[in-house]
Amino acid sequence: MSSLTVRPAQRGDIAAIAEWNVAMAWETEQKRLDPQVLLRGVTAVLDEPRRGLYFVAERDGQAVGCLLVTYEWSDWRNGDFWWIQSVYVAPEARRGGVFRALYGDVAQRAKQAGAVGLRLYVETENARAQQTYRELGMEQCYYFMYEQML
């Protein structure tokens, strides 16, 4: 199998990242997202790095997956948690180490940046993803997530 590389996303990746987000929302929640809103949302991250960072995994120069990192300040720890979000691996590249490569790269960058930890959320029914996260050394937290859309 050829090697994977991980790099920060560039402007040329915006369309693919937006398309992957549309696919992920449908695959995981059967939710239809507005592609134009997504394009603006992905572009906003690249325009304002304070919002987060996208990373892209490539195999043989072909983009095969991505994820978004956003930040949460922890006053308890006087540091940032890096939240892993919007993870997508192209169907033809799944079970090929793409997420593992993305996660390893982000963990290293977070440590170098002085982050206090990595966090992500996962659907309660997604046992395969939960197993992957445990294998990478993550532990289940004891918080429920609530939201109110505005």
UniProtKB/TrEMBL annotation:
Keywords: Acyltransferase, Transferase. InterPro entries: Acyl_CoA_acyltransferase, Bact_Acetyltransf, GNAT_dom. It holds the Pfam family Acetyltransf_1. SUPFAM superfamilies: Acyl-CoA N-acyltransferases (Nat). CDD domains: NAT_SF (cd04301). Residues 4-150 form the N-acetyltransferase domain. The keyword Transferase applies. Gene3D superfamilies: 3.40.630.30. This is N-acetyltransferase domain-containing protein.
